[in-house]
Design goal:
Blueprint: H1 4-15, E1 19-23, H2 30-37, E2 42-45, H3 49-57, H4 59-66, E3 76-81, H5 89-100, E4 104-110, E5 128-132, H6 138-142, H7 159-168, H8 172-177, H9 180-203, H10 208-220, H11 228-235, H12 239-251, E6 255-260, E7 274-277, H13 286-307, E8 313-319, E9 325-332, E10 335-343, H14 352-361, E11 365-370, E12 387-390, H15 391-396
Parallel strand pairs: 1-4, 1-5, 2-3, 3-4, 6-8, 10-11, 11-12
Antiparallel strand pairs: 6-7, 8-9, 9-10
Length: 399
């Protein structure tokens, strides 16, 4: 199926000389999407033994095999897959790009290992742009064209498509199959690969059984404040060990973290984060699943807007010591932009916390999303006061 990231990748290579680094969860469709976007691509996979030999020999060996020493019309699209498993991948790309950038369109896919260069000196400075690839979303099902706008006009998808997305998640295979038996087997296989193979091979953590137990605890407590001491007691390990394992699970795209926003918020929580799953279909509690569903859509939008250069966007939650809480706050250039509270029904009325925190933060918009309202063809963002909106309408205006 066509993904919005195809148009993103085409736009990137038309407008920029830099390499495109595409990162995201296992099975989200990175390789397929890149191949569809870049026709006649030379595909190089670290897991292929012949490609691995050439990569370890250096940039010239890869270039010669790709025919870069020959006269050609235009630049050759090249896709490097799984190369984050090579310990010297940064040195390889620095050398390859510096010599062959004028002859190639380079795309690199992989896990969060590609993000490790941000933690120290960046030898690839000015040689790449970074893009996060997310599962399918309401807006992407409605429209896959590249857009530089933050907010789209609302666009309806069918009830069947929405229900399938909510139930089976946004990973392409289970979404397209829409079959419970297939979905159960697919999730079991993915979790085995992620929580056993990838944990062992990419993070060097040997206690994979304990990490699997931690993953189940995270899934059972999705959207709740993390209690590191409680988790440590459950697993009979230290708090620092739990923090280390959670960091590994985040780096492998099992879960993501949302932290509290506390600027100008009296008696705000400042430290305790919440965790959500990249695959919301794995959350069993219906209320937590719905909250995770919305969180995933907001994170996708925040990453997209930041990655394409519209500004610096962030996703937070709001809670103070008086127990006043709003599920999500989206910021733009470190300033509050809009609030989102997640409720199952419109019968509950607009949360008092939305009014309180909109005044405290100065956010332009405040939404209470509900599941029991049909799509309305109206721009949510034209409302400056807290308003109850159909979740499909709001999410269709994002990415």
């Amino acid at each position: 199926m066509k993904r919005i990231y195809e148009s993103l990748l085409i736009e990137h290579h038309q407008e920029n000389r830099q390499m495109a680094f595409i990162v995201g969860p296992r099975q989200v469709g990175k390789t397929t999407t890149c191949k569809n976007a870049l026709k006649n691509t030379t595909y190089i996979n670290w897991d292929n033994i012949n490609d691995r030999i050439r990569i370890t020999k250096g940039p010239q060996a890869v270039a010669e095999n790709a025919g870069l020493s020959e006269l050609r019309a235009g630049k050759l699209p090249m896709l490097f897959d799984e190369i984050h498993k090579y310990s010297k991948w940064k040195d390889f790309f620095k050398g390859f790009f510096d010599v062959y950038a004028d002859k190639t369109l380079i795309t690199v896919t992989g896990s969060a290992k590609l993000d490790t260069y941000k933690k120290g000196g960046d030898s690839l400075m000015d040689r790449y742009f970074f893009y996060h690839m997310h599962p399918l979303s309401v807006a992407e099902l409605a429209n896959t064209r590249f857009t530089e706008k933050e907010i789209r006009p609302p666009q309806k998808i069918s009830k069947k498509d929405f229900d399938t997305l909510f139930q089976f998640g946004g990973f392409p295979e289970p979404y397209l199959k829409a079959n419970k038996r297939f979905s159960n087997r697919w999730k079991r296989l993915r979790e085995d690969q992620l929580l056993k193979e990838d944990i062992r091979n990419l993070t060097k953590i040997s206690e994979s059984d304990h990490v699997q137990m931690l993953a189940k605890l995270i899934a059972a407590n999705t959207g709740q404040l993390i209690n590191y001491s409680s988790l440590a007691n459950e697993l009979n390990v230290t708090v620092n060990t739990v923090k280390h394992w959670i960091a590994a699970l985040k780096s492998l795209y099992f879960c993501f973290e949302i932290r509290p926003w506390f600027r100008n918020i009296s008696k705000s929580l400042k430290k305790q984060p919440k965790l959500y799953l990249w695959d919301w279909s794995s959350v069993e509690n219906s209320g937590a699943k719905y909250e995770n569903f919305v969180a995933s859509h907001l994170l996708k939008a925040v990453h997209w807007w930041t990655d394409i250069g519209l500004g610096n966007y962030g996703l937070y939650y709001l809670r103070d010591k008086m127990q006043r809480e709003v599920d999500f706050l989206v910021t733009r250039d470190n300033k509050p932009w809009f609030l989102v509270e997640v409720k199952s029904s419109r019968k509950q009325g607009v949360s008092d916390s939305l009014f309180y925190y909109q005044k405290q933060t100065g956010a332009s918009n405040a939404f209470q999303t509900v599941l029991d309202m049909e799509f309305i063809n109206a721009d949510c963002f034209k409302n400056t006061q807290p308003v109850i909106v159909p979740v499909q309408t709001l999410l269709s205006q994002l990415i």
